[in-house]
Amino acid sequence: MYARYSERLLKELLQEFRILYLAGPRQAGKTTLARKIAQDLGMQYISLDERTALSSAQTDPHGFIESFSEKSVVLDEFQYAPELIAAIKLNSDLLLPHEKGRFFLTGSADIFSSAKTQEALPGHMARAELYPLSVTEKVGTGFNIIDFLLADNLSLSDQLPLLSREQLAQSLIDGGYPELQDKKPRSRQIWFQSYLQGRLFKDFETVYSAKGDYHTKLGALIPYLAGLSGNLLKYASIANDLAQNDKVVKSYIEVLEWMFIVKRIYPYVKNRAKRQAIEMPKLHMVDTGLACHLLGIKKKQQLLNSSFYGGLLESFVVMELFKQMAWAEESMQVYHFRDKRKNEVDIVLEQNDGRLIGVEVKASNTIREHDFKGLNKLGELVGDQLKYGIIFYTGSRFLPFARGNRSYFAVPLSLFWL
């Protein structure tokens, strides 16, 4: 079993809040982690994936919650019983100030993303996310990319271990689902087929209250989105290509985001950047392994020769940032930047103090002058707000660059494996 580095934070949150909601995709490891925490802290564990428990929760939500008396409880797959929210709120309101960690909820859909459900538990609930395994968790090191980037002065060895293109491609194909890490290609294919048919479609129907022929539409949309990973999201273009209604396409993508299948990254449109930025989100697949399966990519060379490699590599870096933010000392806001002249920065990180870090991802082992074009443009627009710029690349040397009074760095992607 892999150690999950967010475990310590989750236990701290249970000491500080009455309710903790842990959201993340199916099979990311939430149940395993929730069971471990329940055992460590002496909490009762109930899965709402179990039919009898779910029926009780739905037919008598207040009685169901009251049945736990004064015992703290884990309610796994909570998205199946949103009827419990009002009962939990009532129970939480009656707790004494020192009574914390009463409810640990987990869900494979982010039902608390809507304003209505957020307002139901004001101040009572902490929210956290658990994604599939990060590279750091897979290799068992203590490195955290967010803490590294937060430092005022970047410091690394001039020479990092070389990560070959083939090794990087295999990592993208492997993805992060814990159960898949030791499976052979044929078993992986069967697992993904079961995941899509037995879990994804089932959860989509629950969250969306889908009717009609949604299976066919969703079955066409998800592989299309896998091929779009790392690119701008144009709903009308998708709808036109798939002969679907653009409003339906947008609503489906929203639900897939609630289910942690895709993630939308919104543009940085603050200050002077707002006037020149294209206000269009970028789309990323949460797991590159799932994306490769949907695209029919099974072998390293197949991925390296495909048109999807660059976009999936960018998605890999984006999701490593989100994964490792779960146990970093501070969080950041994640954006992208693209102006009307196609100057772009793949990732714009905003610290709590408003300073920015521009991040570019290159599937190349060399850095050239024009690779700084987007970072330079962002720097012109935000001035001293830009702390520095980084280009992740497949070389092995950590190299500083200067453009005027701005600091840039070429950083090997092998950094993630430290």
Describe the structure in your own words.
- The protein has 418 residues and is α/β, with parallel strands linked by helices.
- It contains 18 helices and 14 strands.
- It has helices spanning 7-16, 30-41, 51-59, 61-66, 84-93, 115-120, 135-139, 145-150, 165-174, 185-208, 214-228, 235-242, 246-258, 273-276, 288-294, 300-304, 309-325, 373-382; strands spanning 19-23, 44-47, 73-76, 103-107, 125-129, 231-232, 262-265, 282-285, 333-338, 344-350, 356-361, 386-393, 399-403, 406-412.
- The strands form 3 sheets. The protein has a 6-stranded mixed β-sheet. A 5-stranded parallel β-sheet has the order 2-3-4-1-5, covered by helices on one side.
- A hairpin with a 2-residue loop joins strand 13 and strand 14 (406-412).
- Helix 11 packs across helix 15.
- The longest helix is centred in the middle third of the chain and has 24 residues, at 185-208.
- It starts with 6 loop residues before the first helix and ends in a 6-residue tail after the last strand.
- 41% of the residues are buried.
- The model has no long low-confidence stretch (mean pLDDT 91).
State the end-to-end distance.
20 Å
SSE class: alpha/beta
**Overall mean pLDDT:** 91
Number of helices, where a helix is a run of at least 4 consecutive DSSP H or I residues: 18
Q: How would a textbook summarize the main sheet?
A: 6 strands, mixed
The spatial strand order of the largest sheet comes to: 9-10-11-12-14-13
Helix content: 40-55%
Using the alpha-carbon principal axes, give the shape: globular
Q: Rg from C-alpha positions?
A: 22 Å
Strand content: 15-25%
